[in-house]
Amino acid sequence: MKTYYGLNKVKKFKNAVVALGVFDGVHIGHRYILRKCAAQARRINGTSVVVTFYPHPQGEPSLYSLKHRLCLIEEMGIDACVVINFSCHFAKISALDFIKNILVDKIGSRFIFVGKNFRFGRGACGNLKLLESLSCSCGYKVISFGVIKKNNQPVSSTYIRGLITKGKLDEAEKLLQRPVTVYGTVIRGISLAKKIGFPTANIDPHHEILPPAGVYAVKVIFNQKVYQGVCNIGKRMVTIHQKKDKYVEAHIFNFNRNIYDKNLEIIFVKKIRQEMNFSRQKDFLVSAANQIKKDIQAAKNIFSRH
User: With 0-12 CB in 10 A as exposed, 13-18 as middle and 19+ as buried, what is 282?
Assistant: First the structure.
């Protein structure tokens, strides 16, 4: 998939079939639209193009980082993605100008695939009705999609964010059609876990939504290989003060490599326990080490059943 950051280098695409939206999380509803977009482009020997925005136009915390989102969009068979910087300047563009100057003149849209509730343009005045009213004069066709429901609940990124923050990861996984994950960069910590025999990768997440604090059995994807491990979300060993309210730290089984500044993805399999405070115990390092051993065994038992 060819990715364009901004509109400067974009030229009209051949028979552009455009999927328009934020697509945060690329959940089950998004994936349906993207598959239909890609299929239509193949039918007319055209180019499937996603037009998306970053940061989130409504200022919502992101389910996935932009890089992660783009990977998921590419998996849907999309040919190109145009990432528009949602700046103060861009937010002032009228809905009419967005359609005529960007979707039509710049991208060359022949088909526009969009959710029925999607809004765009200055003051979010643009909607499906406006897109359809200009379709004949601008030479494109609009294909609209209603909100998908699961158990009478409309599927939305906002709803999924709530499920993840409440720890309802199984429910979120069904709506995402993939496990709940965290994608981030390995950064340096204080190596406290390493001192007690359990080296960890400290992760700086590329997005804001994290499961609740606690210890989880996880799978870790690094360099396209899958490893097993345990992950702690919360305060660093709950023994020292940290600047951030939450952090992510993973101990990867049978892994001994220097991966500082590298990116990896953590897949949450099952929660093992709540966060524990070892700092109040006299021999907190010994207590922490003993608990980590129990966590590792609990995780291995979980993996043996999966």
Answer: exposed
Residue 190 to residue 58: CA distance in whole angstroms: 37
Looking at residue 289, what is its pLDDT? 83
CATH assignment of the domain containing 134: 3.40.50.620
**Radius of gyration, alpha carbons of the chain:** 22
Per-residue model confidence as pLDDT tens digits over 98-132: 999 999 999 999 999 999 999 999 999 999 999 99
**pLDDT computed for residue 237 by the predictor:** 42
Does 174 map to a domain?
Answer: no
CA atoms within 13 A on the CB side of 213: 12
Instruction: Judge whether 164 lies within some domain.
Output: no
Identity of residue 176 = L
Q: What is the pLDDT of residues 50-100, one digit of tens each?
A: 999 999 998 888 888 899 899 999 999 999 999 999 999 999 999 999 999
Residue 167 within any structural domain of the chain: no
Angle at 208 between CA 205 and CA 211, to 5 degrees: 85
Q: 43: which residues sit within 8 A by CB, 6+ positions away? A: none
Number of compact structural domains in the chain: 2
Residue 168: inside a domain, yes or no?
no
The answer to whether residues 7 and 82 touch, using CB atoms and an 8 Å cutoff, is: yes
Q: Which amino acid is at 101?
A: N
